[in-house]
Structures are given as C-alpha cells and as structure tokens.
Amino acid sequence: MSYSRRLLDTYPTTEAPDADVLATAIEALHDCVQACVADVDANLSEPNLMDMVKCIRLCLDCADICTATAGVASRPGAPEAEVIGPLVQVCVASCRLCGDECERHASRHEHCRVCAEACRRCERACRQLLAALK
Predict the structure, then answer these.
(1) How many Å apart are CA 66 and CA 54, to the nearest integer?
(2) Half-sphere exposure of residue 24, counting CA atoms within 13 Å on the CB side?
(3) ∠ at Cα 102 (101, 103), nearest 5°?
(4) What would the DSSP string read from start to end of 51-68?
(5) In this predicted model, what pLDDT tens digit does every residue of 9-59 receive, in sequence order?
(6) CATH assignment of 3-9+18-133?
(7) In whole angstroms, what separates CA 3 from the centre of its chain?
(8) Any idea where the domains of the chain sit in the sequence?
(9) Is the Cβ–Cβ distance between 126 and 31 less than 8 Å?
C-alpha cells in the first residue's frame, strides 16, 4: 500500500472521493512530476536543443501543475469542488499536451517516451478523479 493511501486511511472524517481513486491520482501526479523534471534535464543535454524547446516548456508547465494538484489533492479533509475540480481539469489538459509533445520525440529519445507514458497515466488517473468528484 502506498503512503498516499495509508495517509488517506488516517483521516478521521473526510468528504473526499473514493480513497483508492484519490491515492492512485496522487501517486500518478508525483510520478508525472518526476518524469517531467527528469525529461527536461535530459532534453537540455540533447544536441538538437532548439528542437526540444516546446517539449521543455510543456514539461515544466506539467510538472508545476501536477505539483499543485498533488498538494491540493493530498488535503482531502473538506475538498472544495470549486478548487479541486478545475485544478484537476487543467492537469488533464497539461498532461495531454505534454504527453503529445513527448510522443513526437519518443522514437528518437527514450526519456521522452518514458515521460509521455507518465503523462498518459497521470491524465487517466486525473480523469478518474474528476469522475469520482462528481
């Protein structure tokens, strides 16, 4: 069992969505942040750096958005639907865009393929979280 799930189980009361869905999303968000940060670092080492600028920017955006979303989602005591819902929607969009861009480079750069995979997993987990929030 993950720390996310274990911590969710310690809440005395919560109005949070399904704990398994929430824990899966939190873990996917953290994994996506790590993948995006690592991909940016690898992109900066590529000889064709100018070809990687869009990928770098989208990865930086995605990492920041996923970090914020994971932070808010990790405080489920009394989630404000007006905050968490739009934040998760933005995360879905950012992961989709970042994943699309990373996939463009995946055949040439393994780090982009791995990052795209993390983005897709996070996008799916956030879509499931959105469904659970309704």
Answers:
(1) 18
(2) 16
(3) 90
(4) GGHHHHHHHHHHHHHHHH
(5) 657 665 667 888 989 999 999 999 999 999 999 999 999 999 999 999 999
(6) 1.20.1270.360
(7) 17
(8) 3-9+18-133
(9) no
